Amino acid sequence: MHLNSSLKESLVTTRIDNPVALAYDWIHHNLYWADAGLHSGRARIEVLMLHNRWRRALLDESVVRNPTVMVVDPRFEQGYWSLVLFIYCDYVIP
User: Fold this and answer.
1) How much is the pTM?
2) Measured at the alpha carbon of residue 3, what is the angle toward residues 69 and 82, in degrees to the nearest 5?
3) Residue 55: CB atoms within 10 Å
4) Would you call 27 exposed, middle or buried from its count of C-beta atoms within 10 A (0-12, 13-18, 19+)?
5) Sites in the chain below the pLDDT cut of 70
6) Do the beta carbons of residue 42 and residue 61 sit within 8 Å?
7) What residues form DSSP beta bridges with 56?
């Protein structure tokens, strides 16, 4: 992989629905993403180890709902994500 785009490579091409957030661990060279799962209904957070292309789902729809933002701090081996809550209000101000 080169930063000048001379070599483009597809890293993930299967079992991905609607990726909405991406984070890179520059120490361990891992790529994390949040998939909202809009079409499949299976929201999840996954990781891809770039040195060997090993992929794993870290959290699934039982924990993750509507992920939108993601960040990792590899110095402390922490990851954070936020979600969007849709609130419906059926109240009209007179």
Assistant:
1) 0.75
2) 5
3) 15
4) exposed
5) 1-5, 84-94
6) yes
7) 47
